[in-house]
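B., you asked whether I could sanity-check this one before it goes into the benchmark set. Here's the sequence:
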Amino acid sequence: MLYVVTGPPAAGKSSWIQARARPTDIVIDLDRITVALSGPGAPQWNQDKLLVAVAQRARFAAIDEAVKHREETDVYLIHTMPSGKALARYERLGARVVAVDPGREVVMQRIRDMRAEGMAAVATRWYRHQGKTGAPTVGRQSSRSW
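And here's what the prediction gave me:
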């Protein structure tokens, strides 16, 4: 099964997956990919433009390969704000789309506490477009401890 997990930054998408995924499942998370490609000492949510560009390419390749195996193992894909085209592809693949949203106030506070300033704009954009995925929304979600 392919699970596409959407939601604003700091909503708890990774935590939602961590609570469900087995060690043998495939998890595609741009934050984790970026950290894996970063040098020692890089911040947990590294937004360096060059690293993110490389991580995005790796993410696309991982998605293309992982969806071939969705019948054998669960695939969890974090896609904060999928476009209509992406949603159509996920629908063709039989994905279950889930929106993780603990609420705007919680998200904005988590961003102030833990994330880069620019993430507030991403969250605002997510809330402006909220509901366009038609995904069921998962409410309160614990965030990662780091």
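One thing to flag: The chain has one domain: 2-138. Otherwise nothing jumped out at me.
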